[in-house]
């Protein structure tokens, strides 16, 4: 389905502003940015299917999942890490992950 109106903003800059993460949520020079490129006309979920992986595989269980549709790639801090087929780009991870996990952040400057 389509992402209407302020859909992207509601998933990016609005949460960053609410959490007072002043250097996230916008594509601006000098800011850290993760970018998910997608086709607005094609974005959605594929058909449900059952997979057996992780801890579930060890105990004989499974889970239901769907594959994303319409995704074209993922960049973390400017490094292309996932291609349009959802596969990790090996060269992007050889030096470690290009991003960091935010566990806390200072208040935005006033």
Give a description of the structure:
This protein is of the alpha+beta class and about 110 residues long. It has 4 helices and 5 strands. It has helices spanning about 5-10, 15-20, 55-60, 90-95; strands at about 35-40, 45-50, 65-70, 70-75, 80. The protein has a 3-stranded antiparallel β-sheet. A hairpin with a 2-residue loop joins strand 4 (about 70-75) and strand 5 (about 80). The longest helix has 6 residues, at about 15-20. It is globular, with a radius of gyration of 17 Å. It starts with 6 loop residues before the first helix and ends in a 17-residue tail after the last helix. The model has no long low-confidence stretch (mean pLDDT about 85).
Backbone shape:
globular
Compressed to H and E, one letter per element, the order equals: HHEEHEEEH
- Output mean pLDDT: 83
Derived structural class? alpha+beta
Number of strands: 5
What is the spatial order of strands in the main beta sheet? 1-4-5
Portion of residues in beta strands equals: 25-35%
Distance between the termini: 38 Å
Number of helices: 4
Provide the fold topology:
Elements: H1 7-11, H2 13-18, E1 34-38, E2 44-51, H3 54-59, E3 63-69, E4 71-76, E5 79-82, H4 90-93
Antiparallel strand pairs: 1-4, 2-3, 4-5
């Amino acid at each position: 389905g389509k992402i209407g109106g302020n859909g992207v903003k509601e998933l990016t800059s609005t949460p960053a502003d609410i959490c007072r993460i002043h250097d996230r949520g916008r594509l601006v020079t000098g800011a850290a940015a993760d970018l998910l490129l997608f086709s607005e006309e094609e974005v959605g979920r594929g058909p449900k299917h059952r997979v057996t992986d992780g801890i579930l595989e060890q105990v004989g269980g499974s889970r239901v999942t769907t594959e994303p549709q319409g995704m074209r790639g993922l960049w973390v801090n400017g490094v292309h890490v996932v291609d349009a087929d959802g596969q990790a780009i090996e060269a992007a991870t050889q030096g470690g992950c290009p991003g960091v996990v935010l566990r806390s952040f200072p208040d935005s400057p006033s």
